[in-house]
Structures are given as C-alpha cells and as structure tokens.
TrEMBL record:
Residues in HTH tetR-type domain copies: 8-68
Protein name (record): TetR/AcrR family transcriptional regulator
Domain of life: Bacteria
Gene3D superfamilies per record: Homeodomain-like (1.10.10.60), Tetracycline Repressor, domain 2 (1.10.357.10)
Keywords: DNA-binding, Plasmid, Repressor, Transcription, Transcription regulation
GO MF annotation terms: DNA-binding transcription factor activity; transcription cis-regulatory region binding
Segments of the chain annotated as binding DNA: 31-50
Amino acid sequence: MTNERLTDRKRAAIVQAAVAEFRARGFEATSMDQVAATAEVSKRTLYNHFASKEALFAQILRQLWDRSAARMDLAYRPDLPLAPQLSALLLQKVALVSGADFIDLARVALTATLHSPQRAQDMLQRLAQKENALLTWVCAAQQDGRLKPADPLQVVQQMESLVKGSAFWPQVTLGQPRLGPRMQKQLAADTAELVLSRYAA
C-alpha cells in the first residue's frame, strides 16, 4: 500500500471517528483527543490532517454538500412530459436526504449549529447553494413556457419543504424511521403532482 493511500485511509478514519464522536457527545463536548483515540491515530497525525476541531467539522459539512451536489443531475427536457421529469428529479432528492449517511451527517451538523447561530446561518446558506438542480430545472421549464411565471426560488423552497417535511426533518429531529424505496417514490410523485397542479402552464 502506498503512503498516499495510507494517508487517505487515515484521513477517512478521522472523519468517520469525528462523525461518531460528534453524534455521541455533541460538537462542543467532543475533543480532538477523543477523535484521535476513536480513529486509532496519533494526535500528531490528526493535526497533520486537520488544524482544529472547526476544520474537521468543516470537512464533514463539505461531504454533506458534495453528496447533495453529486446526486442531483437530471436536466430539463423540452421533449418530455413535465410530471415524470420532475418526479425523477425529486426522487433523487428524496433518496439523498433519506440516506442513512446523509441523516447522520445532518444530525452532526445540526448539533454543532445549536450553540452557534452564525454557524447555523452559514450551514443553511451552503445547503441552499446546493439546490441548483431543482432551480435550474424550474427556470428552464419557465423559459420554455411550460411553467407559469413565478419566483423560481419560492417554487424550489416549496418543493424542498414538501420533501424534507416527510423524508428528512422527522428522521433527523424525532428519530422516525427512514422512508423505504416505495415511500420515497410515492413522495416524489405526489410532490411533483402537487407542484405542477399549481405551476404548470
């Protein structure tokens, strides 16, 4: 195994350990010593990768953002009906926010933001920036004359509220079970139908 691969594995182990510690203890109560012990690395190795607990937390958030961006990639198609397009795009969103890893990372992020309003604001702004796929789709459909003129950000926020109100917030804050594949598909289809009943031209 090359040194580079070993370094990558240690970095991944540190992040995984940090998620576990942050979840168990909360952000404020977690120490870098605890993370190093859980990751089974030396403190020197830990600090070689992350200069501070805040830097480590920022890496966890980056994983959250990157997963969100990577999973949303269906472009608007003028030659296809709106409902199956939007339903497919929303299903990607539902599947993402219903994922066990995503929910775990979100819990960590929310725990860390409770004691820092500025951190919470930064988190929400970063999350909003990752909703580009839905926003791009809505704007394209409006420009094509197939959706009524409306504030596209508001349309996306309404879809986000419908999706996360069933597939994300109850699981993150109340510990409710994650939605299975059939319920995810139904939620995506119902949300698309509701949105298009209001906005389809």
